[in-house]
Amino acid sequence: MSKNTLKQVKTRREMSKAEWTWFLVRKNKMAYFMVAPFMILFFLFTIIPVFFSLILSFTSFNMLEVPKFVFMDNYITLFLDDDLFLTALKNTLIFAVIVGPSSYIISFAVAWFINELSPKVRAFVTLIFYAPSIAGNVYLIWGTMFSGDQYGYVNGFLMKLGLIDAPILWFKNPAYIMPLCIMVALWTSLGTSFLSFIAGLQGINKSLFEAGAIDGVKNRWQELWFITLPSMKPQLMFGAIVSITGSFGFGGIVSALAGNPPVDYVGYTLSHHLSEYSGTRWEVGYACAISFLMFLMMIGANLLVTKLISKLGE
Amino acid sequence: MRKLRTRRHQVVLNRSAGGDVGITVVLVIMGIFMFIPMYYTVIQSLKPLNELFYFPPRFIVEHPTFNNFSTLFNLMSDSWVPFSRYIFNTVLISVAGTFGNLVLSSICAYALAKIDFPGGKQCFWIIQKSLMFSATVGGIVNFIILSKIGWIDTYLAVIVPAWCSTMGLYLMKQFMESNITTEILESARLDGASEFRTFWSIAMPMVKPAWLTLIIFSFQGLWNMGSSEYIYSEQLKTLNYAIGQITAAGITRAGASAAATVVMMVVPITVFVVSQSNIIETMGSSGMKD
After folding, report:
1. Which chain B residue has the Cα nearest residue A52?
2. B37 contacts A142? CB cut-off 8 A
């Protein structure tokens, strides 16, 4: 009894760090029950898969036999013996370098342009720009607009104007596949980060601008650089992560419009290569090596860019 | 002092007329580019068959008709899997996935945002980092896990993983952190309310914009889901997948395919129009602080 009482009145100072943590754990028992369901599923379906991909990437595994440890063989084959992988890597990097930053900049620019419009007009313009990113596979319409026969809008108009004599097979011509897919990707890219920028711009304290005007900010460009951008760093950070992660996983639009694989493997990306080896060939170890490399590229690019943004205005 | 013109006691910011005109022109051009394909989809879905094959193609419809929509349903009703089944699948997956995601995320977000417990910060750190890679990178191992559980080729294979999608949790947690004052929670706890009760009757009503946003993001993602590598059976496949099949048939089905796309896009766009102000409010606290 007396021992028990003593324990209860023990103060923070008398407890060791471990004891104090244990006390907090028991005190907040409920919190653990509250996070558990989500966290268990999150680990099961998100974190564990990444770790196992790393482990399986060192093996040769076909889902039927026991995985055989092959160390770096998969990675060596990828870089030295798989030309298609190098094509896919090159295309993924091209898409990521063009689509990622462009969609980021366009999202920000449009959000900034519409920031001073009246709320009703702003809501309408937001809808026009945001709609393509949520409207399911409406991007398939680009396939009809650029369809290879004379009933496609673009061919129809070009022929009417006399610029071309015969219809162009847009999505079958290696010269046009990449630019067209990039265009369609940008068309659907004003998504979550766009909304985040709109909200971020709305949330900036207006008195900052007034103070800036008094302090000698001469025009909207200076205002953008000295006041707006530094004030919305958190949104810029969030938007960058969303854009980058999306741009590295690029591939769905190419398969839908140009076919999988596309003509001459133009526009063939890592996500195509991944589904080829995981879905079609069942070379799971090899596919895991591809997906782990994708993981590293996404994380690497994200960490680099968030680091750069955090330096903004310093 | 020349710059400090005041009107209704407000400082007028430096805005050149040239800049205003330039920005408006750019916005209008981009707006047209964004809008044309959407407009074209709708127009295409209303064209009778002969107008679909006009040369050159026209940007207006002379005799609008809903035939394409009825064709769409007829087209699929005599096939092995009726069109209504694809709609049912998509609705079921979207609703069940969104509901679970909402329940699990908001409970978890509340604990992470408003209870200071050992391990909480680490949990949020790893969730925030998970936004940096897409689900595709774990796809293969996910397949192995799902097949071990025995969920491959069932609705559960797509519904349950949707429950732990992190974007909604992230937004919810950020929103709760900046919109629920600790004092109000403290007073509830002092009154003897359990942590769960505080969450349910005090916190949840205060973050309505956040759960609306979560519902919309989650619903959109699931609604637009095409074929999944975890599902083989035709009768379990989604609307988006079925539309892809119709469109793949080419020009002969151009009208039906446009009609299907309209059916597909009407739902998320309507939902967004209705809830736009709530979403923007939620996104205001979406920023990442480190």
Report:
1. B141
2. yes
